[in-house]
Amino acid sequence: MSGFLAGLCVAVLPLLAAGFWLGRRTARPPGLAGLGTPVEHATFETLHTASLATPPLRAGLTEEAAGRSARKLRSLLGTDALCLTDREQVLVWDGAGAHHRTEIMERLAGPLDSGRGEAFPLTCDIPDCAVRWAVVAPLTVDDRVHGTLVACAPRESAVLVRAAGEVARWVSVQLELADLDQSRTRLIEAEIRALRAQISPHFIFNSLAVIASFVRTDPERARELLLEFADFTRYSFRRHGDFTTLADELHAIDHYLALVRARFGDRLSVTLQIAPEVLPVALPFLCLQPLIENAVKHGLEGKADTCRIQITAQDTGAEALVVIEDDGVGMDPGLLRRILAREVDHTGGIGLSNVDDRLRQVYGDDYGLVIETAVGAGMRVTVRLPKYQPGVHLTGRLTPK
Questions:
Q1: What phi and psi, each to the nearest 5 degrees, are found at residue 324?
Q2: Long-range contacts, 218-226 (Cβ 8 Å, 24+)
Q3: Sign of the CA dihedral 290, 292, 295, 296?
Q4: Paired residues of 321 in beta bridges
Q5: How far is it, in rounded angstroms, from Cα 301 to Cα 308?
Q6: Using an 8 Å Cβ cutoff, are 89 and 101 in contact?
Q7: Helix (H, G, I), strand (E, B) or coil at 248
Q8: What is the pLDDT of residues 206-235, one digit of tens each?
Q9: CB 360 within 8 A of CB 368
Q10: All residues at 6 or more sequence positions from 357 whose CB lies less than 8 Å from its CB, including other chains
């Protein structure tokens, strides 16, 4: 009996396997294995297409961005033609019926002024023209119409009207994000200009005064300091790139400290411990120099003896850890918190709050300055720099996170 059951199992197993395979084939079309049901597959395709259209739109409503996203948007709507316009012209036309460009622009005055979508028939003398109807949906940013999305089809369709409106709202969100990215970039540029303005008045005056004092007594020393001053100002006022390397930033700081030492002599002692492997790490331009300037100012302020500053840069794996420490007068932690929050004005506080804001904007809130201080206890400032961060490049402009 057991032999009979064993033989029956052997005979039935191939039939069960074949039935299971056939059921899988009929329940799920070939090629969709692993993607779920046809509905799930359609959802995935829609989301994937939308994700491909997103990056170009984050550059704003430009001809290049429109050209790179139009085909994906037309695929989302499943329409015969699609165009994107600004307030003046058609930026891109994808699909059939491109000869309707002029007619489309002539009909956009209403939607551009009112911000409401419209649908209208197209006039055409070409018998086999694939598009006979247009649906216009405005693209708005901050309640202002920047352009339109126009979907064209062979016939009137209420479904297309609703779909075009939804896609236009999604595009508008991307354009709003692009506008925020541009505002963020302008803010960072303004903050860099503020740092440069902070550096220029007192430091340039004091440096030139020191150099002038050596012109008669030690011309060679004056020449060396003048070269240091030229190198530092050339770096500080450069006009290209939002980021630099740790090596370049430290090199500029070395020029700065040479000028400070010429002024204060033996009252300033600086020790550097830099791990060579972190020198290529990218960081925001003019990020460390204000921290060094703050350490020099508070280290020398109210002290008759030597101010000691220690600068270390360590490799901690995925990050570079930069620590700037002085043995100066320190600061009340409560006052420091208010300075970083820009609740009070304080001499030198602009540099600290500026650097803290820029680090958070570039790397996230987890990467703000960590400052340990107390009255009479000096100050220790820690900066964590990820070795890799999307958007941080040594050349070109800031890319949004």
A1: -120, 120
A2: 221/262, 225/258, 225/259, 225/262
A3: negative
A4: 314, 384
A5: 12
A6: no
A7: helix
A8: 788 888 888 888 889 889 989 988 888 788
A9: yes
A10: 191
